[in-house]
Amino acid sequence: YNFLSLPFLYKKKKGGPPDVGKMLGGDEDKDPEAEKEKEEERQEALRQQEEERKAKHAKMEAEREAIRQGIRDKYGIKKREEAEAEAQAAMEQASEGSLTRPKKAVPSGCGDDEEEENIMDTVMKYLPGPLQDMLKK
């Protein structure tokens, strides 16, 4: 079959463009009141559609939140905002009487003077004699 010869693929137009009557000077809408009413109706329809869309999305989000809460309950997970709020409350409680920011926890072994001396003694054992004398001064 020749694909171009199939008649049902072609759309048949009858008559001219839809605005031919207006172009020839016939039935033109010159009434500003009617145009204003149409515009107001269109704006109202848009507002109504937007409200319906927002309501639909709010309903879907509520359903999702119910599912999320079910999962949190099942696995014992805290809600993200609640966990952050608890951490913030713990930080505030720890620094309640202090005028400065809370101190950061220092890992064990960092900044201990005794340990630094032990490390230096270990290093000194492996250095040659003259270098040991220079570093001891």
Which word captures the global form? elongated
Global Rg: 40 Å
Helical fraction equals: 55-70%
What gap, in angstroms, lies between the N and C termini?
A: 103 Å
Strand content: under 5%
Taken in chain order, the helices and strands follow as HHHHH
Mean pLDDT level = 76
Count of helical regions: 5
Q: What is the total tally of β strands?
A: 0
Biggest pleated-sheet summary: none
Low-confidence stretches: none
Describe this structure in words.
This protein has five helices and no strands. Binds to the SNARE core complex containing SNAP25, VAMP2 and STX1A. GO terms for molecular function: syntaxin binding.
What is this entry, summarized?
With 137 residues, this protein is mainly alpha-helical. It has helices at residues 20-23, 32-75, 80-94, 113-126, 129-136.
